[in-house]
Amino acid sequence: MSSEANAPAPGIYLDNNATTMVDPVVVEAMLPYFTQQFGNPSSLHQFGDRVGRAIKTARQQVQALLGAELDSEIVFTSCGTESDSTAILSALKAQPERKEIITTVVEHPAILSLCEHLEKDGYKVHYLKVDKKGRLDMQQYMDLLSEKVAIVSVMWANNETGTLFPVEEMAELARSAGVMFHTDAVQAVGKVPIDLKHTAIDMLSLSGHKLHAPKGVGVLYLRRGTRFRPLLRGGHQERGRRAGTENSASIVALGKACELALAHIDEEKTQVRMLRDRLEKGILATVPSCFVTGDPTNRLPNTCNIAFEYIEGEAILLLLNKLGIAASSGSACTSGSLEPSHVMRAMDIPFTAAHGTTRFSLSRYNTAEEIDRVIAAVPPIVAQLRKLSPYWDAAANAPVTEPELAFQPAYA
Amino acid sequence: MWDYSDTVKEHFFSPRNAGAVADANAVGDVGSLSCGDALRLTLKVDPATETILEAGFQTFGCGSAIASSSALTEIIKGMTLDDALKVTNQDIADYLDGLPPEKMHCSVMGREALQAAIANYRGEVWKDDHEEGALICKCFAVDTVLIEDTIRANALSTVEEVTNYTKAGGGCSACHEGIEEILTRVLAEQGKTFDPTAAPPPPAGQPKLGTLARIRRIETAIEAIRPNLQRDHGDVELVDVDGKNVYVNMTGACAGCQMASTTLEGIQQRIVEDLGEFVRVLPAGKGQGPRAEGRGAPA
Lengths: 412, 299
Known about the structure:
The complex is a heterodimer of chains A (about 400) and B (about 300).
Chain A: E1 12-13, H1 24-30, H2 32-35, H3 46-66, E2 74-77, H4 80-94, E3 100-104, H5 109-120, E4 124-128, H6 138-144, E5 149-153, H7 167-176, E6 180-184, E7 203-207, E8 218-222, H8 248-263, H9 265-286, E9 290-292, E10 303-308, H10 313-322, E11 325-326, E12 328-329, H11 332-335, H12 342-346, H13 351-354, E13 357-361, H14 368-388, E14 392-393, E15 398-399, H15 403-406
Parallel strand pairs in A: 1-11, 3-4, 3-5, 5-6, 6-7
Antiparallel strand pairs in A: 2-8, 7-8, 9-10, 10-13, 12-13, 14-15
Helix pairs in contact in A: 1-8, 3-8, 9-14, 10-14
Chain B: H1 6-13, E1 26-32, E2 37-46, E3 51-60, H2 63-76, H3 81-85, H4 89-95, H5 104-121, E4 135-137, E5 142-143, H6 144-154, H7 159-166, H8 176-189, H9 211-231, E6 234-242, E7 245-252, H10 260-275, E8 280-283
Parallel strand pairs in B: 7-8
Antiparallel strand pairs in B: 1-2, 2-3, 4-5, 6-7
Helix pairs in contact in B: 1-2, 2-5, 4-5, 6-8, 9-10
């Protein structure tokens, strides 16, 4: 465990797929760039020059974590969403004769909302389906690849279940069909090893705040030679590929965070994974009627998404929060929408379970002691809510017989 | 996280009347599984007096659904069935010191469970007359179904009209795109095409007023407001109408009141509504030059 996480935040934070704590070492690295090193990196004088050099270092640190061949392939942006939009809109703009996009039904809204919007502008979007474990059908993918497709955009790892997609293989297939390939790797970077120079991936999005850098900074990896059109035009920053004065302090921070992530990458698949497995086994052993969603054999080492049947996720989160435990849910109520998470629906998880899905996402700062406290806290919370549930027989501590028939509310 | 009132939190953390009433003689099951909220209400009703002796709930739902269920059972215990039927969803929300707009449907579900349970007791078949769609306008809590129905009923064709009829879109503007999508869909059903550049048609049945009729209507609007001002020992009088500018004199306590500009805005809104056109209400100054120092109201 990294003990440099000096003053631990109060409570137990298991929502690292939402955002992460900025590593204190990262904060230390960025602070001088607010006051002493405030120059504009485009300026000729020493004030600007020093910042320009720091950004160059940061670019190399990102390059190292991604295994990119060149540091010029790293374009700093404001966030993962900007990187995603830049990638897709660039591919469409640069290849106006191609009017189709291939993506998946379980992408992040940063991709899905954009694609739905583009459909209104006349683009054809193919959404690859997933099976009950959240896996893609590669045959369906291969059948869709054609010279009409401008870009394939497939996430490296799913934010809700942690399920990994075979993006390296998919990128090879796209390349052999002459189609550009983008991956939203916001959840994967820093959690699984990445070596872009040995892949056919043309573009990749990452977000600083998912790997212990601050919010408000991201990266678009752009393979050399990829046809490109900028989203923001203006100054010559980022070689004209992303205009706008550099967010220098955050860029320096992201560089440092990438350096740390690379140094700790093995911990993800050892310690973090061990804690995640311990949490998951502990909960599954003590709570009846619950199951892991996604593909447990092929997922991020830090993510565990459990569906607690017959209860609702927001209620679970509120009770966890009362104990200082932070997690997240795929229920409709947590987002204010009328449908549970599109990821759970895509995997055909029944409503009675989809609303009770709870995501625990760890980081290298979590401790075994924290995990044990969560394992102890969850069963009584689930039991308390099930006592209120019309689907649950409190006396038998089991679902009522044929729950879907026993309770059929009017108006669905 | 939601901005729940302390009462909502309290009822969620310590729900009252949780579980089924043992010897219930009325049951109401309502809700929507896809939305993630469903409620079974069980009542024990005294057949002689038709009084609700006991009420219990079982809820599959979020914090506010559980709190609404708990509040409902507390409200109706001891009521006669006829009185209980008068309980509205707003009563449930008020009991909880309010609910976030996205969560008002939880209180609606409570009221429906009550209606369903009473129908069940009386051997009637309860039919849901309530339809709810995705929330479009968060500022004024307007959902798709209301917008669609209003567009159909009033043959609306622009976002401005939808805002005028439903308030949706009158706040932060975030939902204008959503309203345009609904317009596109509903107009397509009618074989029409939504034109985002179309100006709102003049209100039906309101031909352009002549100068005199227009001034009379402004006068009537001001007359209607005066009693409110007089209650606060103020008053207002119409001085002149010059095109889009309506000049008034604030008198009594209104003269020099720090709230005068707010009052003027209120008067302006009332006149705009009554007149069906935009006017600017200004204090009649010396020489009565237009004193519209960029008040920035949309024309």
